[in-house]
Amino acid sequence: MGIDAEVLIVGGGPAGLTAALTLARLTHTVKIFDNNDARNKATPAMTMLIAHDGETPEHFRNEAIKNLTKRHKNVTIENTTIAKVKKIEEGEDKGYFEVEDNEGKKWVGKKLVLSTGCTDIFPDIPGYEDFWGNGIYHCYFYKGYMPEKAPSSGILAVDIMEDVMKSMHAARYATQISKKVTIYTNDNKKLADQFASSFGNAKMFTVDDRKIARFFKPEASPDKLPTTVGIEFANGDKVEESFIGHYPLSKAKGPFHEQLGLPVLPSGDIATNFPWLQTDIKGVFACGDNSQPRKIIPEAQNTGSLVGAAISNQIIAENFGQMGLV
Questions:
Q1: What pLDDT, in 10s, does the model give residues 169-214?
Q2: Which residue intervals define the domain FAD/NAD(P)-binding in the entry (predicted)?
Q3: Residues 286 and 214 in one domain
């Protein structure tokens, strides 16, 4: 059958695009598969990207693709949804990898990159998803700079954040952009007591152990931030916060790690081997949010570049019949 490209990349976000760019710089042929279902599609603006700070994710992605494909004719993009991936076990393409989209079209490559991102698993609290990325944030460096501090903010101490050290870590960051911080333990009174004893003499921290019934959008007024989040408790009481900090559970997006039999960490991330981010199958690499604990764009780009360089090393060494670094 022969290969369609040296490297097949499933997922065209910052990690996949950066891996493609890195490979393209050493003339490798690359095919990217993407269905435009980005994790950050609800985010109004991206941050922490030099020269792109404040741009929408869609604009950034479109400009990145335009630049990549215009300057590097060895990179092509298929706008499709990949449904299956596998390692070819027999025939002339043995040892290579095949991807198949949801219409049955197939492509073959020497190496496979999974840069599919992750699926967030939100707490079972009505209204949470409506504010995700626009009122509820997992990264304060994303929320970041404000001309003046917000009146107040909250930390939702559930799931991963049901931990004093992790939630206080987030709460301390929040004090840079809000005047006071309330930690909501959602009916966990024992945890609330642990937080209260950890505050020391700091007066800007408080804890609230009432059970949360829902998050809601308060009525707008001139003295409120655009992203003000309302919290209604099970007893009917209501409060408002300028924003909420919470890091949800997540899992690697797509069925591909299961189809390949790749191990997954307790965090839900695909397991990769240090330092080149190759999985337990030689020739299969993972980068970005599906395999990294720090799910932010600079980290996705960093891991994409690393994977691109690793694959280049592996392909070139194999072309000479030699053992490479990877």
A1: 999 999 999 999 999 999 999 999 999 999 999 999 999 999 999 9
A2: 6-135
A3: no
Apex CA 269: angle with CA 125 and CA 81, to 5°?
Answer: 85
Is the pTM higher than 0.85? The answer reads yes
State the Cα–Cα distance between residues 290 and 183, nearest whole angstrom.
29
Nearest to 24, CA basis, from 51, 11, 6: 6
The domain boundary, picked from 221, 245, 269, lies at 245
Q: Which two tokens stand for residue 207?
A: 């804890």
Which of these three, 245, 263, 281, is where a domain ends? 245
Q: Which domain holds residue 297?
A: 5-120+249-320
222 and 261 share a domain? no
Rg of the chain in Å (alpha carbons): 22
43-102, pLDDT tens digit by residue? 788 888 899 998 999 999 999 999 999 999 999 999 999 999 999 999 999 999 999 999
- Segment (H or E) for 137: strand 136-137
Residues 169 and 20 in one domain: no
DSSP bridge partners of 264:
270
